[in-house]
Write a structure and sequence with these properties.
The complex is a heterodimer of chains A (806) and B (347). Chain A is of the alpha+beta class and 806 residues long. Chain A is elongated. In chain B, the strands form two sheets. A seven-stranded mixed sheet of chain B has the order 1-4-5-9-8-7-6, sandwiched between helices. In chain B, strands 2-3 form a two-stranded antiparallel sheet. The chains are: A alpha+beta (806), B alpha+beta (347).
Chain lengths: 806, 347
């Protein structure tokens, strides 16, 4: 929120520097996001007194002798039509910075530095300036809009800095207001805080006015929706004379970036910024039936707002109506049909409180926001609503732009605007903070905040002004005290009263990290992808219409379609990650992600869906193949101390003959495979790429936590290398399984060679395995092992026709 | 053999012969072969000497044996010496033949790297884990109640505007803050409570400095007599451990619906140590987290007696810390799995 220092000073005495003020505001909870001097671009501009002024023949120029005080009397060439001897004008000295304007002398094009110049052969040692050139507008300083020199008052001291004279030395603070302090969404609200933090006096704006005896007979206000409009105050004003606002008001509005319009409209805008209460003025002549009805809109009801846009409303929108039609979208924007015009002679002022969520939701739904809706959405208090109406009527009189009738209607639900009592324990307040704030400081601080504190033993009674709707308990009091007392009084302690607790990861959490570390050691780097993806991701995988993955949870308000579905598989984002890397010229690599997939129990969601922890691994590169990825998958099994089995499988996006299902104790726990060439081409990928997905959540039941030591065998192991010739389509897994089954002493079976060749026959291949026999309590003799092997050979021959290759 | 003189002469000539022969040898293998012939018990010049013991008169036998043994010892020493010399030479040759250019590249053993988020998360978990905090991982999909209402943010609360929420239905949403976990923990467990709750959170914000998904770590302590000073003490310890010795915190007033008082916590700039630099925008302080004393309404909503127990909570942005610590300039880089990024950040 923009706060001009000069405006703030109307309500509170500030006798510290702007930097100190920023510091004070910061310390009590109001961060100044930016602060700047109004004339920050302008420098070295002084009051110049024109002593002599002679026209330069055949030009529009004048050659002047200008007294610049300490800078001496300077020769200046000036082309303005209002330059004259005896006048005082802003004089930019050599080295000064002022605004450069376009040919129209109005449009600012940038900042320029004044140098010594020569016009038509005459030296000029500076420049006499217009209002625009020193950053002023007519609204900021009377006469600044003139297309010529800015005329300074005769009593301006020659040679003095021009800034204080025209108000360019004013400062603007842009202050962030937290959501719990809607009462500070105004300059007066900030002033209350400044007075408290500085310990200086607060000056309330004038609220007095005199009602005439004139009445608008029969005028009524009917609030049909008191839950969303707890207070509605209307006051009739007549003999209105629409005119420009006085200079002081126009200047203040201009300083906060608002364009003054006319006295009546400006009063409402002024109060919105001064007190934080949005107000509205209706041209009474266009209100039909002498009544105001506050009600919910009918479905399909239409209104044209001040910005000439037609809106179609529904029953969740609140409207202000006259006897016949809607005349305003409550709290958001007035209707065009009752707008204040130059011809307006009678006005109904509105000050109301509307429920913050109603305004927020309507504003969002209709895509229509305004300063008013922003204030209402954050919350407006009825204390201020009442105060604002008084202030508006005061300003009507002060600006002499109308007469205040005695038709005043205050429709409310009985909410008090008086201060309410809150009793708290001082011990509890200090208990929150962990320090003991001296009682006199507590009382001083609370007094400064208008809480009128009274202390009786440990019991502190405060009177909470009605605008402080945030004050509810001793915790709130503690916050008020500490933000004013200073957070630097809080000294670190280390929970001296707390019990000792264990802490750290549990087994499951440790396991996740263990897998990550193992995968890193295996050469894969960890990636993190969004939990949502595009519906097209599922098409990318070529999943059939009825695939379970397509029953994904939809985000109702996604940023865009590409981020609209909660993911049911990690594979598409992994494939896209590999694609992105390859596009950037990275042609080999390995990435993994451990993240959740989201599986709804029902759609639309009626209970928490399953969030299932899943591992996805992608690898790509010329040296990579199915088995290198399988190696990484095995790392997961090894880390968990479990065993995976594999069988050929099919996935629409994977190579039909290079895809495997991963099994753990017979459970399907994932897959791995090479990405289909069609997909590689479609995605402009450049090298063979592979992807695996492992359902980590299914593995939990198989891995044990701590492993128990197995004593080393007392006798040496026996190894046998066995080479079989079998039919080509016999798989490694089939033989392996058979070997393992053959003897309980076998602790490892590993394929070490596969050979296909003419001498074996066209349909045959040989497979060579190393088999390890680990003895138990008895020594394992060679003969014994030979016995096991020959039994194994018989079985393999019977089952698979395997023949030992010599 | 008539006498010892004769023997002595014979031994001397053998010695001379061995010496001469050895000098001609060029390889350890030829020395080895020669040694075999010399010591052969039948034909060897030395090996055969003992066979002649039978021919020696008894009274000379002792003396003879002694001389022969001395001879044997001498010869063995000669051969050892010779052997050693050749072995050294041969080793030298072997080493020379195996000379490597050690500056050639290493065998390519690839290792991968943990994501910066995981690195930071681990560091934070280690710090708080050692202080007795358990880890609670909530769900990414939450209900409106746990994410907002139970955290003192009812439907009409303006703080809801502070967070653009992704809704999945009227009731379910993507959690906007890991604070949602607080309530589950307090409902399930009675004090003493010390937990941290790391996880992904979501807000409908997607621009140069915002990602619609990011990570937070919520911390919650509820016990008897917990105060704002305890929060400060613990955060001081935390920033010291994560940003280094000499780092301190500054509290300043802020607002979160579920804490009262609420504070923003700034950390003294660990790059310039308060002098003012680009990282801290010249202020000497960097905003790192939000915190506060748990609002008693939140405790009471979870059935915890606020007259007996109090607590504090804090929320840390993981990416924020990662970006500060590692100097990463764009949050989006963390979610693109660009290997050039992932392989750069190491613990």
């Amino acid at each position: 929120m923009l706060v001009p220092l000069s405006w703030l000073k109307e309500y509170v005495d500030i006798n510290i520097s702007v930097d100190e003020l920023e510091e004070k505001l910061f310390s009590c909870g109001f961060e100044v996001e930016e602060k700047y001097e109004v004339g920050h671009d302008v420098s070295k501009v002084v009051v110049g007194y024109v002593e002599e002024c002679e026209p330069i023949p055949d030009t529009h120029l004048h050659l002047c002798k200008v007294n610049a005080g300490e800078a001496g009397v300077l020769q200046i060439c000036c082309g303005a039509d209002n330059v004259r001897a005896g006048g005082k004008f802003p004089l930019a000295l050599i080295g000064a910075t002022v605004y450069a304007t376009a040919k129209d002398h109005k449009t600012v094009e940038g900042v320029m530095t004044i140098g010594q110049g020569k016009l038509r052969g005459y030296d000029s040692f500076g420049m006499l300036c217009s209002g625009v050139e020193i950053g002023l507008t007519e609204d900021m300083y009377e006469g600044a809009g003139y297309n010529g020199l800015l005329v300074l008052p005769d009593d301006a001291e020659t040679g003095a800095d021009v800034k204080p004279i025209v108000g360019l030395d004013d400062w603007i603070f842009d202050i962030a207001i937290t959501a719990n302090r809607p009462d500070c969404q105004s300059i007066y609200g900030i002033a209350r805080e400044v007075a408290a933090v500085l310990g200086t006096e607060l000056h309330e704006p004038a609220l007095d006015y005199t009602e005439t005896e004139v009445k608008k007979d029969g005028f009524t206000v009917n609030v049909a929706a008191p839950d969303v409009c707890p207070r509605y105050i209307g006051h009739y004003v007549y003999d209105v004379k629409i005119a420009p606002s006085p200079a002081w008001m126009r200047r203040r509005l201009a300083l906060i970036g608002q364009t003054p319009i006319s006295n009546l409209v400006d009063i409402t805008n002024y109060i919105l910024n001064e007190l934080g209460q949005p107000m509205h003025a209706f041209d009474y002549a266009y209100l039909e039936g002498d009544q105001i009805n506050v009600r919910c809109a009918e479905d399909g009801e239409k209104i044209v707002t001040l910005d000439e846009k037609e809106l179609t409303l529904n029953s969740s929108n609140l409207v202000i109506c006259d006897g016949v039609k809607p005349v305003a979208l409550a709290g958001i924007m007035g209707g065009l049909n009752s707008e204040i015009l130059d011809s307006t002679t009678e006005v109904l002022f509105e000050a109301a409180k509307f429920a913050r969520d109603n305004i927020r939701k309507s504003s969002r739904a209709l895509g229509k926001s305004s300063d008013s809706s922003a204030r209402f959405s954050k919350g407006v208090d009825e204390y201020t609503t009442v105060m604002a109406m008084k202030r508006a009527l005061h300003l009507i009189e002060e600006l002499n732009c109308g007469k205040v009738s005695s038709t005043h209607v205050d429709t409310n639900t009985g909410n008090s605007i008086e201060a309410s009592e809150l009793k708290v324990s001082v011990n509890k307040v200090n208990g929150v903070l962990g320090i003991t704030v001296p009682t006199e400081d507590i009382l001083r601080i609370l007094k400064g905040l208008n809480f009128d504190p009274v202390l009786n033993g440990d019991e502190l009674t405060i009177k909470v002004p009605a605008y402080r709707e945030d004050m509810e308990s001793y915790q709130d009091v503690a916050e008020e005290v500490i933000r004013m007392y200073g957070y630097d009084h809080i000294k670190g302690t280390f929970m001296p009263t707390a019990e000792v607790t264990l802490g750290g990861y549990n087994l499951e959490q440790r396991t996740g990290l263990k897998i990550k570390r193992a995968l890193c050691a295996a050469g894969a780097s960890e990636g993190v992808h969004y939990s949502f993806f595009s519906p097209s991701s599922l098409d990318l995988l070529g999943l059939p219409e009825d695939a379970w993955e397509r029953k994904a949870i939809r985000i109702m308000n996604p940023i865009n379609e590409d981020l609209s579905l909660m993911r049911t598989t990690l594979a598409p984002q992994m494939i896209q990650a590999m694609q992105r890397n390859q596009k950037k010229g990275i042609l080999e690599g390995c990435i993994y992600e451990i993240g959740n997939i989201f599986v709804p129990k029902s759609l639309p969601l009626s209970e928490y869906p399953d969030e299932l922890e899943t591992i996805c691994i992608g690898c790509f590169g010329e040296d990579e193949d199915f088995f290198s990825l399988k190696g990484v998958v095995e790392v997961v099994a090894d880390t968990l101390g479990i065993e995976f089995e594999y069988e050929a499988a099919e996935k629409p996006f994977l190579h039909p003959y290079r895809t495997a299902r991963i099994l753990c104790s017979g459970d399907d726990v994932g897959y791995l495979g090479q990405i289909r060439y069609e997909l590689i081409d479609e995605l402009d990928m450049r090298v063979d790429s592979f992807v695996a997905q492992i359902d980590l959540y299914k593995l939990k039941k198989y891995y044990a936590g701590e492993r128990i030591f197995t004593p080393l065998p007392r006798f040496p192991e026996e190894k046998r290398d066995l080479c079989f010739v079998v039919d080509k389509d016999i798989t490694c897994a089939q033989i392996e399984k058979e070997i393992k089954k053959s003897c309980e002493l076998i602790t490892d079976v590993k394929l070490f060679d596969v050979y296909e060749g003419m001498q074996l026959g066209i349909d045959k291949k040989s497979m060579a395995f190393t088999v390890v026999y680990t003895p138990g309590d008895e020594e394992l003799t060679s003969d014994k092992v030979d016995g096991y092997v020959s039994g194994l050979l018989d079985t393999l021959k019977d089952k698979y026709g395997a023949v030992l290759r010599s | 053999m008539a006498d010892l003189n004769e023997l002595s002469e014979k031994l001397s000539s053998i010695k001379a012969e061995i010496k001469a022969e050895l000098e001609k040898k060029e390889t350890s293998k030829s020395v080895f072969e020669y040694r075999k012939t010399i010591f052969d018990s039948k034909t060897g010049k030395i090996g055969s000497l003992m066979r002649e013991m039978g021919k020696i008169p008894n009274e000379m036998k002792a003396e003879y044996g002694k001389c022969v043994n001395e001879m044997k010892a001498w010869a063995q020493e000669m051969f050892e010496e010779m052997d050693e010399k050749f072995r050294r030479e041969e080793m030298k040759l072997r080493y020379e033949s195996e000379k490597l250019d050690v500056t050639m590249p290493a065998e390519d053993i690839k290792i991968g790297y943990l994501h910066p988020n995981t690195l930071i998360r681990n560091q934070i978990v280690d710090i708080f884990g050692s202080m007795g905090f358990e880890i609670y991982e909530g769900t990414e999909i939450e209900t409106d109640y746990y994410n907002f209402t139970a955290l003192n943010t009812p439907d009409d609360h303006p703080a809801r505007d502070m967070q653009d929420t992704f809704y999945l239905s009227d009731k379910f949403l993507l959690r906007t803050q890991t604070s949602a976990g607080q309530i589950h923990v307090m409902e399930a467990k009675k004090p003493p409570i010390k937990i941290i709750s790391p996880g992904k959170v979501f807000r409908s914000d997607d621009d140069a400095t915002h990602s619609p998904m990011f990570s937070q770590m919520e911390g919650l302590v509820v016990d008897k007599g917990i105060t704002l000073c305890d929060l400060k003490g613990m955060l001081d310890e935390f920033v010291r451990r994560i940003f280094g010795e000499g780092t301190s915190t500054r509290l300043r007033p802020s607002y979160f619906p579920f804490t009262e008082p609420s504070v923003e916590v700034d950390v003294s700039c660990f790059q310039c140590h308060g002098k003012g630099c680009k990282l801290c925008k010249g202020t000497g302080w960097i905003e790192v987290l939000g915190a506060g004393v748990v609002n008693k309404k939140v405790l009471e909503g979870c059935g915890i007696d606020s007259d007996v127990y109090s607590g504090f909570a804090f929320g840390i942005g993981i990416e924020r810390i990662a970006m500060l610590k590692y100097g990463i300039n764009n949050i989006k880089l963390l979610f693109e799995s660009d290997l050039r990024v992932l392989e750069q950040i190491r613990e």
